[in-house]
Write a structure and sequence with these properties.
single chain, Immunoglobulin-like, 2 domains, four-stranded mixed β-sheet, 10 strands, 28% helix, Carboxypeptidase regulatory-like domain-containing protein, CarboxyPept-like_regulatory
């Protein structure tokens, strides 16, 4: 039994040596390929059935969001770039153009479920009414026509206030919005500062 075990060990050692040699050869070939090939970004290739038309594949930033600051001061709406999306809690961005998506948080980065988002046209007509899920995320299920829209956010329990934002859709994939709420305490403090000290512009 001992000679058979020794033979088996030698066979396994030979196979391991062969595999290690093949592994080293492949690493050397890969290194050579990397030296001769320029670096290209890795992109996911959608399946043909779900792939959007070629004109909508690029992620385009709409014109900058123009918040209409409330009395609270600083703007509370930002565009989320695709590389930041996972970090802020949006693991999957839409692949369809003119679809509004985003996440709503309070000023301390806590997610806000049950918040209402209304997308209105330039005449103030509501076109989409959305509600954040348990993770503070919202997404329209259908695209909007190209144009300029007003995004209004409302907390039904009146704990928070929000700035309104204007977005322009142009037939491209719309980056998600990150919307931060202002607490009533922050708004009251800003109003008092304005009354006591006036505008600091």
């Amino acid at each position: 039994a001992a000679p058979q075990a020794d033979d088996r060990v030698r066979d396994l050692q030979k196979q391991l040596a062969d595999l290690m040699g093949q592994h080293q050869k492949m690493e050397d070939e890969l290194r050579l390929l990397r030296q001769h090939t320029p670096a290209q970004p890795v992109t996911d290739t959608p399946s043909p059935a779900s792939a959007p038309p070629a004109t909508t594949k690029s992620v385009a930033t709409p014109r900058p969001i123009t918040p209409e600051p409330s009395d609270g001061g600083r703007a509370t709406v930002q565009i989320i770039t695709p590389d930041r999306a996972v970090k802020v809690g949006l693991p999957r961005l839409t692949t369809f153009p003119n679809v509004v998506t985003g996440i709503v948080k309070d000023s301390e980065q806590n997610l806000l479920p049950g918040v209402l988002i209304t997308v209105k046209d330039k005449d103030g007509m509501p076109l989409r009414a959305l509600k954040t899920n348990r993770l503070g995320q919202f997404a329209a299920s259908t695209p909007l026509p190209n144009g300029t829209y007003l995004v209004e956010v409302e907390d039904p329990r009146l704990r928070f206030a929000f700035d309104r934002a204007q977005i322009t859709l142009n037939g491209s994939i719309v980056p998600a919005l990150e919307i931060f709420a202002k607490s009533q305490k922050e708004i009251t403090r800003a109003k008092l500062e304005k009354e006591l000290f006036g505008n600091k512009t």
